[in-house]
Amino acid sequence: MTSISRRDLMEAAAVTGSLIVAASGSNAYGDGAQPQFGPGPSVLQGKELPSFRFDFGAQKPRTSDGGWAKEATVLKFPVSEKLAAVLMALVPGGLRELHWHANAAEWAYVIKGRCRVTTIDPEGRSEVVDFNPGDVWYFPRGHGHSIQGIGPDDCEFVLVFDNGYFSEFGTFSITDWLGHAPADVLSKNFGEPAATFASFPKDEVYLVKGPVPPPLPPEPVPGSLDAPALSHRYPFLAQRPQIFEGGTLRLVSEREFPISTTMTGGLLQIKPGGMRELHWHPNADEWQYYLKGKARMTVFGSGGRARTEEFSAGDVGYVPQGFGHYIENVGSDDLEVLLAFNSGLYQSISVTAWMAANTPLLLSTNFGVPQSVFATFPKGETTMPD
Ligand code: MN
Ligand code: MN
Questions:
Q1: Is residue 245 among the annotated active site residues?
Q2: How close is the Cα of 333 to the center of ligand 1, in Å?
């Protein structure tokens, strides 16, 4: 009997695909056929999986006296099609100017230092909120915002955007717009003499340094009329984590942080020798920033393809939606990884739980080994209870 593997079928399909290319000349999938991953050829369709690691530390930042920023987008990290990121630092008084993003929502985690955020939403509601290390913010796509370091030390944070093609250096900044509007229009708009705008910047300011603003007045009592309906701030580190055998996991989805409708954040800690078990996410890509320690991640991509890479502090990792993966702590210290998913709903399926949900008879048939083999297997997802 000849057995046909899925790999053989995939290779046959690939040959058929190339014949269609030859026949149609322009459309790799032929008329009416559905592409496997998207409109263009995907980096995930090759015989070998692409790299899931990006050396963020080696990227050159854009600097000014207000701070610095560097980005990780699909242009340099081809697999990261759904999520892009920026690492930014602001000196005390350093201001990331008033701006918005037309093509992405912004999720952030403060690594160190303190900063003040101002926002405005389409209902005209505004917020001014101070952020501390371990805090998360979320700005829906298109909402106006600014970020300023408030000292005493530099403030460093990671921004994650739910669009891999996003670029921090192509956002909509207030100086860029006003600098490219005629003075008589600005005069009409603001009811001020045209001469008022003569000394306004002509180009985008992006990052600028000013005085450290004074402390905020005490926050309004929650539930009072002054309190905003949707706060932009979530104190992530204050959350009690889920505990598993090898470490802990915190999650901040729309459930915990209602404004965060398109993204979920995670903070994963794994003890030396511990592992985040084999699992996948049915509904989202996973973006990772390695904060501390040494890790080894393996990504399984079907068709006999699996890729293992090592990560250390400052590296970015990525797992496409539905791709299997596991993360091992291979260092002698705790491993800490920041996670971001491009869905407000967190979904995960573990291989352990999946197997436990099936009978030993089925597993025996599936794996071709006696049923007794499975007697001592875990009876559910043991290492990551939800
Ligand atoms: Mn922004
Ligand atoms: Mn995962």
A1: no
A2: 33
Tell me, rounded to whole angstroms, the distance of Cα 99 from its chain centroid. 20
143 belongs to the catalytic site: no
Taking the centre of ligand 1 as the mean of its atom positions, its distance from the CA of residue 82, in whole angstroms, is 17
Among residues of the chain, what percentage have pLDDT more than 70? 84
- Whether 10 and 303 have beta carbons less than 8 Å apart is answered as yes
> Known catalytic residue: 101?
yes
In this predicted structure, what is the pLDDT of residue 352?
94
Residues in Cβ contact with 354 at an 8 Å cutoff, skipping those fewer than 6 apart: none
96, 233, 281, 325: which one is catalytic? Answer: 96
Q: What integer is the mean pLDDT of 250-262?
A: 96
Contacts with 359 (C-beta within 8 Å, 6 or more apart), sequence order: none
Question: Highest mean pLDDT range out of 111-125, 222-236, 369-383?
Answer: 111-125
Tell me, in angstroms, the distance from the centre of ligand 1 to residue 112's CA: 18
- Phi, then psi, of 112 in degrees rounded to 5: -155, 160
Number of helical (H) and strand (E) elements in the chain, helices listed first: 5, 25
Query: Which among 168, 277, 286, 328 is annotated as catalytic?
Result: 168
Give how far Cα 302 sits from Cα of 4, 15, 37, 177, 299, Å.
15, 18, 13, 47, 10
**In a 10 Å sphere around its CB, with 0-12 CB exposed, 13-18 middle and 19+ buried, how is residue 195 labelled?**
exposed
What are the tens digits of pLDDT across the range 51-110? 999 999 999 999 999 999 999 999 999 999 999 999 999 999 999 999 999 999 999 999
Q: Are 66 and 95 in contact (CB under 8 A)?
A: yes
